[in-house]
Write a structure and sequence with these properties.
The chain has 541 residues and is α/β, with parallel strands linked by helices. The chain has 2 domains: 37-277, P-loop containing nucleotide triphosphate hydrolases (Rossmann fold, 3-Layer(aba) Sandwich); 302-518, 2-Layer Sandwich (Nucleotidyltransferase, domain 5). Helix 16 (363-371) crosses helix 17 (390-398) and helix 18 crosses helix 21.
């Protein structure tokens, strides 16, 4: 039974005079409202005190309507975002929906995508669509008391965090908030939503939260941390002024199609029921398990990564009982990118050690970051493709560490496991070798540490389309991958480097971890004819 069914049942059980009084009270309470939320989760979300609200789950739960209702009733300056303008101006988009609420399109300027609602409390609603951080820069410094992201998981985490930094107002007593209206993610790029709302979405969270329960978060030393509501953090700005930073509250309120009587009666549930199984689970069931859809030419299937992470829970003792065989270092040079160092024990990866770029400006800083992780005299594979790793490689080699310089642009003479295709360069070889190692049937049974960031980064790599794809494997440039993720895939590269270029002893350890690894899919060579016999005879002589 839905919340609405329950309310109707209780309403009908009242005496007629009480029903009439309830109608009058409801009309009086909503007289000033241009839009009224449905009873249940939508009403809970409307009145939630959270600074950051995630409202959603199933498709058809009234997420877009909530954003519009808040904009027309509660906020002076609102900015509502979608990935594409067709979802704003097109049939069924935000603008036609708002016209239905207000009764006309009066006040809307289509050339600027701005809707002005005059009155004592003048309201301005701006609609926007973009896909890249570069496009989002147009909203830098533009304050609003409501930021709403419709289908938020389609946006990069970096974009959402960047834009909502201007959630503020100068109007006294005007409340500010951010609402993320969204279904569960269907692609790895949207997994950031799990990290932001882990107390509500992660069944293994040490302190799980109930729907609608407020929790408070703030940045401590650059790391987002859950704190008590009364926590205060002192921050020194560029001018040396000390400021008190208070935490922001957030919550998650699940919604489902059954909470929206308008769509429920339209037969929308039947439409959702005809989708593929993983989409049914996410959109109709609102299940926040990981139901991810692989993209065209995706190099590493999401399911392979998740299975490798499941194995890690059973093999964590390898990190203690087995020696460290290799270390992969993706080197930063002081910029916004991170330096990531990941250890490898045979076929079990340790957790990535992440250092902000600002903390590794010098060669000794980089060497210290690597040596903090390395033990047991492992093979240290360092990214030297961009020139950042050359100095630290020199320093470690001069101290007789076992360093391998990884230059992705170098020529590869290897072939894939089936011996059907070569590689465009070493970079493509390392990524594909990692894919082969993850193969559940013919791989090396490797174990990956938990973390949705690992899943998102590993699944962001795509094969590059080119005329010779049947003979040569090429991978998209890092810039394309970074656009998709909103950041550089530093963790993924540290994993690739740790697995790359194994020396003979390490190679033998990997080969012995899974006997199926030795089985080749290619057919055995068949020698026939005079030329082959002659070649054999010549070699014997």
């Amino acid at each position: 039974m839905t919340a609405l069914d329950d309310l109707l049942k209780r309403y009908k059980a009242l005496p007629p005079e009480d029903q009439e009084q309830l109608k009058k009270d409801a009309l009086a309470a909503t007289a000033r409202m241009r839009w009224v939320p449905n009873p249940g989760p939508q009403t809970d979300a409307y009145f939630s005190k959270a600074d950051l609200l995630y409202y959603g789950g199933s498709a058809g739960g009234g997420k877009s309507q909530l954003l519009l209702g808040l904009a027309v009733n509660e906020h002076r300056v609102s900015r509502l975002f979608r990935r594409q303008f067709k979802d704003i101006d097109g049939e069924g988009g935000l603008v036609p929906s708002l016209a239905t609420i207000l009764g006309s399109t009066a006040g809307y300027r289509g050339d600027k995508h701005v809707w002005t609602i005059p009155g004592k409390e003048r309201r301005t609603i701006e609609f926007a669509a973009f896909e890249t951080p570069k496009e989002a820069e147009a909203y830098q410094g533009r304050a609003a008391d409501l930021f709403g992201f419709d289908e938020a998981v389609q946006f990069q985490e970096e974009i959402v965090r960047f834009i909502t930094g201007w959630n503020r107002t100068t109007i006294p007593d005007q409340r500010c908030r951010v609402v993320l209206a969204s279904n569960p993610p269907l692609t790895p790029e949207g997994l950031w939503i799990f990290e932001w709302f882990a107390p509500w979405l992660d069944p293994k969270h040490p302190r799980p939260a109930k729907p609608g329960e407020l929790r408070w978060f703030t940045q401590i030393n650059g790391v987002e941390t859950e704190v008590q509501a009364d926590y205060q953090n002192e921050v020194v700005d560029a001018q040396g002024n000390v400021m008190l930073v208070r935490p922001k509250s957030r919550t998650f309120i699940p919604a489902s199609l059954s909470d929206n009587p308008d769509l429920l009666e339209s037969g929308y549930a039947s439409t959702l029921a005809n989708l593929p199984k993983h989409m049914q689970d996410a959109l109709l069931g609102g299940q926040f398990k990981t139901h991810l859809e692989d993209a065209d030419r995706q190099v590493i299937p999401a399911d392979w990564v998740l299975k490798a992470q499941e194995r890690w829970a059973l093999r964590k003792r390898d990190l203690i009982e087995k020696p460290m065989t290799a270390v992969g270092a993706d080197v930063a040079d002081g910029g916004r990118d991170r330096m990531v160092v990941t250890p490898l024990h045979g076929t079990t990866f340790g957790e990535p050690h992440i250092v902000p770029g600002a903390e590794v400006k010098s060669t000794p800083d980089k060497a210290a970051a690597i040596l903090k992780v390395a033990k047991d005299d492992p093979q240290i594979n360092i990214d030297c493709g961009g020139g950042y790793g050359g100095g630290v490689s020199d320093m470690l080699e001069s101290n007789r560490f076992n360093v391998v310089r990884c230059k992705g642009g170098m020529r590869s003479i290897a072939t894939d496991r089936d011996r059907t295709r070569g590689f465009a360069n070493k970079r493509a070889e390392w990524i594909w070798r990692f894919r082969e190692a993850l193969d559940p049937d013919r791989g090396d049974d490797i174990a990956l540490p938990p973390g949705r960031e690992i899943v998102a980064e590993l699944c962001a790599f795509r094969e590059k389309a080119h005329a010779d794809m049947r003979q040569v494997i090429a991978i998209e440039d890092n810039d394309e991958i970074s656009k998709r993720l909103g950041r550089s895939p530093d963790i993924a590269w540290s994993l690739f480097f740790a697995w790359a270029e194994p020396q003979p002893g390490i190679r033998e350890l990997r080969a012995s971890s899974n006997p199926h690894r030795r089985r080749r899919a290619h057919s055995p060579p068949v020698h026939s004819g005079y030329a082959t016999a002659k070649a054999k005879f010549t070699r014997r002589r």
